[in-house]
Each structure stands twice: as structure tokens, then as C-alpha cells.
Amino acid sequence: MKIREIALKLEIPKSTVHEIVHDTLGYRKVSARWVPKMLTEDHKLQRVEISQRLLQRCQQDNGDEDTTHIGVGPGGDFQANKNLFDNLITGDETWVHLNTPETKRDSITWKHPSSPVTKKFKVRGSAAKVMASVFWDAKGVILLDILPQGQCINAARYCSTLDRLKEAIRRKRHGLLRRGVVLQHDNATSHSANLTQQRLQRYGWEILPHPAHSPDLAPSYLHLFGLLKRHLGDMAFDRR
């Protein structure tokens, strides 16, 4: 019910109702939290099970069952077994607008109290966009593959990207192909297709399990795209 409706129903001033609701009862008007996907109980259970399997994998590769060394270290770095993270490559796709406007945070500047207030006009991203596939590891980006404008990723195109990734690993990460690649990607159709699975089996790469609708299980995902999206847009525009 709205404040006005309560006031009409009880025949008291709106100011009195607002004081009771806000000050006495302690209610606040808030917006609902936006989430990309409403997870079912099965989704949540799957996330717990896969997270436990990943934690167990870290323990096994370290040769012990002590989990005290797994977590965020003093310098903010993730402290876990070296073998897994040295061999781990994460990959994903993102849409990149050819013109990405400056965000409000990007436009923050130092201002003296006597200086005039700066103004920023709202600008929308361009309708033209391209899809970029990015693969990275603990050392940095290994492959950035930008599709021609108007094309989307499918199983055949993803297999072609995996071929490029293998060549990039051979050139940039000496010895990784011999040690064994551990690939982390989500459950997109192009990733789970039979054609893609056959290509990955031929390469002999291990695929980490990834529950549906769980981008936060790849912590570098948002950080990477948050930093690189503007640069990717510039590169896509140059290629155009």
C-alpha cells in the first residue's frame, strides 16, 4: 500500500503516516536487487557441488587435505595450488559496441570548491557491435578473437577459435601444451556442442565443470571485461 492510501483509509494526515512508517517502524523504500537469472534450488545445489569439487581438486593437486592455504593472500592474490592455476585458461565471449560511451565513473575529475560543476550528457552505445572471444590465464590475455560484424559464435566457429587458441598457447606459453591445458568456459551451446567436445577430446584438454548461470565462479571474468571492453571497442572499430 502507498502512504496516500494508508492515510485515506485511516483518515489521518499523510505526514503522520510517513512519520510512523519511516521513523517509528524504520521502513525504507528500496528497489529490488537486479540479478541476471533467478536460480532454482537445483541450480544452487549444482553450484555447491561443483564448488566443492573444484576445492577438492585444489587439495588433491597440492597433495594434502589442508585448506588453510587456499584463499586470498595478504597482497590480494589468490593462494592455491600452483599446478592448477599455472595450467588454467579461462575463456568467454562478449559483445563489443563499436562506440562505447564514457561512463560516469570514467568522467570523474578533481574539482575545487570554486570551480563550476561539470556536465555530462547521456550517450548511448552504438547499435553496431561485434562479438569478441577472449582467453586468458594468470599471466594475462592469450588470445583475442574478434568476429566480423554481423556474425555470431557457433560450434564450427568456436572450434576454429580453439585452433587459434592452441597455436597462441604454443607461441606464448611454452610447455603448457605438454603439461596439459585446463580450460574453463561456460555452458553456452557452442561450448557444449558435440563438434566442440570432439575437438577438445582430440586436444586432450581438461574441462573444468561450470554450473549454469554462474559467471562469478570465474572471478577474473568481470574484472577483465570491465577493463578491456573500451579497448576492445577501439580495436573492433579499427578493424572495421
Automatic annotation (TrEMBL):
Pfam families (UniProt xref): Transposase_1 (PF01359)
InterPro entries xref list: RNaseH_sf, Transposase-MT_Hybrid, Transposase_1
Gene Ontology MF terms in the entry: nucleic acid binding
Name of the protein in question: Histone-lysine N-methyltransferase SETMAR
